[in-house]
Amino acid sequence: MIRTPAKINFGLSIGSKRDDGYHPLSTLFLRVGFYDLLLIEDLDEDNIRIICTDPDIPVDQSNICWKAAELFFEKTGIHRGLKITLQKNIPSGGGLGGGSSNAAAVLDWLFIRYPEKIEWIELMDLAVKTGADVPFFLMEGACFAEGIGEILTPVDIPFLKDRFVILVMPELNICTADAFAEFDRKSVLKDNIHFLDELEKVSGLKEAQNIFTNDFEDVIFPHYPQLREIKEMLISTGAEYASMTGSGSVIYGIYPSMLSADQALAGITNRYRAVRTEILT
């Protein structure tokens, strides 16, 4: 079984829509130790089959793992089948990038399986075509992301080392396309905050709270006040930093120690699905 991690956005600045319909982004991607599980197997038949434990996840051509495998086979000219079994723990529509992480695992598995068929740079190009967040999951460590999320620069963030994270996962599924549409409706023209530059100005999490903000909060929280309450709850229970990740609905808090995180978690799990995890370096 392959473990595929979730990600969180440490800050997310959204620029005005470009002529091609995409929004330029500035964000820091961080992996966290909360995983889906994948089993990938060869099939003799020329077909892709997906089995998933979450009945709400499509298992046809609209599944991002299917798209990843199909793009790989088209690029390499390989005519083989693939069976992908997904054990989903990362919620869909939460902003944790679970689908992108799954798709990256499929591409990586195929790259290892057929190393003579494709170069690494070509694999990364397939990742971009699969989904904007997919290339990050083929990288290691934290990354500063630009463009639509595909231009990646590895970064080291010392004040995030040895910190623990609580992910709060309310029963909400927020459509990313709808979130962008609401952002366009409410927002004025703006440039991105360049978070890589901002990293040089901060030395700790509490200082980062007012700089590394998520632009989606301004348009999502008015529709889902529960999410604002969760963020405030995390801060009140000792989180040094709290934010929505991606377009939501997951809210996370970063705590200074495992003990402080576990103490906070005890009071949260009676109201919400939540897990304590850590930032992966």
What do these coordinates show?
This protein has 281 residues and is of the alpha+beta class. It folds into 2 domains: 2-154, Ribosomal Protein S5, domain 2 (2-Layer Sandwich), CATH 3.30.230; 156-280, GHMP kinase, C-terminal domain (Alpha-Beta Plaits). It contains 9 helices and 10 strands. It has helices spanning 64-76, 98-113, 120-130, 176-186, 195-199, 205-208, 216-220, 225-236, 258-268; strands at 2-14, 25-43, 48-52, 81-87, 142-146, 151-155, 164-169, 241-244, 251-255, 273-280. Strands 1, 2, 3, 4, 5, 6, 7, 8, 9 and 10 form a 10-stranded mixed beta sheet that branches. Strand 3, helix 1 (64-76) and strand 4 (81-87) form a beta-alpha-beta unit. The longest helix has 16 residues, at 98-113. The radius of gyration is 19 Å and the shape is globular. The two termini are 21 Å apart. The mean pLDDT is 93.
Question: Which secondary structure elements does this structure contain, and how are they paired or packed?
Answer:
Layout: E1 2-14, E2 25-43, E3 48-52, H1 64-76, E4 81-87, H2 98-113, H3 120-130, E5 142-146, E6 151-155, E7 164-169, H4 176-186, H5 195-199, H6 205-208, H7 216-220, H8 225-236, E8 241-244, E9 251-255, H9 258-268, E10 273-280
Parallel strand pairs: 3-4
Antiparallel strand pairs: 1-2, 2-4, 2-5, 2-10, 5-6, 7-9, 7-10, 8-9
Brief descriptors of the model:
281 residues; alpha+beta; Ribosomal Protein S5, domain 2; Alpha-Beta Plaits; 2 domains; 31% helix; globular
